[in-house]
Amino acid sequence: MDRATISADHAAPPGRADPLGDQAGPGRQPATVPRPPGGTGGRLLRFALANITRRRERFVLSTAGIGLAVMAVIVVRTISVGFASSGSASLADVLHGNPLWVVPADGVRYDPGAGTLIAKGVPPPLRLPAGWHAQRAVSGVWDSPGGELGLLGTTVPGGHAVLGSAAALALRTQPGRTVTIGGHRLTVSVSGTGKLVSVPVAAAEPVIGTHGWWTVAPPAADRGRTDLGQLLARASGLPWASDPARHPAAGGPGLIYDTTGTSAGLTFAQRFSALFSGRVTSSALGLVSTVGLILGFVIAVSSFLASVQERRREFGIMSSIGLADEVLYFFLVESGIVFLVAYLAGALAAGAALALVVPGLASLGSWLQASGIVAAYLPAMAIIGALVPVHRLLQQRPVALLAETS
Fold this sequence. Notes:
about 50% helix; single chain; alpha+beta; 13 helices; ten-stranded mixed beta sheet
């Protein structure tokens, strides 16, 4: 038999792989390994979703734990933003554009029910530089027919009352109608959205007394000066401050707040709002939300560690054939899915809870702002949640992973 006959007899049958397929020759095509359709990202996503489907109970428990933590943080942050907005609005109601605010020795407080600042004492005696103008205001809580409302006696024209939309709704009144306060019949107008009722001082004093403050304006020629607080302090003998965090000294005569200028790039109004926000986040409620977020993260890491323990053999095989990086990418994708679902569920639950419990402090804008703050934490938490179990896994040799489960 000649050489040609022998070559023909040893040719691979049609439809069967040629063991020498890696050698190029006439009519031969190199053997290829079929790959699943889609790119690497698509394969990792399908792999992660398949694992989540196989372990539905763990996925539900993990997302529920993280979602509850996210809900707690968003609720606290939304209330914090709402308080900051209320504080800023209350300060604007007090100042009426005047740069100086003179408070009594006992200071002021914010009443969340009435949604306004309340003086804790009578205004201190005040001496003014020549040409300056001061306006006394009284403040308190009015037990109105529609519930507790903030009442401010200030520079409202006689015979008029300016109501926030929430106050008008509580009193069931509209612009052009009249209300009777302190024996005065006043025509209603609506401005703003709060629960504050602004009336002339003469109408407010019979209802809430004489507790209040001064607002002071310099002459037009001095409006641009940044030392207005010092000038008024020298004339009146009262101490002054440009920091809203400073309180009047106990037993002292009172305090002048100079609201002009900036400190560390923040205006007086911005720092005043930050005080309201900080009181919420530093309170017991803020502490509970922070602890809840930490516990949610621990739940997620524990879930991933348990998943690694269950699938040691599978990942050991992948590592032994050089797919250690794919193990890391897989956990990153699965961690991202868990945290994303938990975040969406927690944010929606927080919005529903806020709308039902504290609708006065929660608005769409404050909820979106709080949700955005919390969303900034999630990428780092998802990456760390995947790296911790994978790091523990890859510290061991693949043969050790296989031997322990065989």
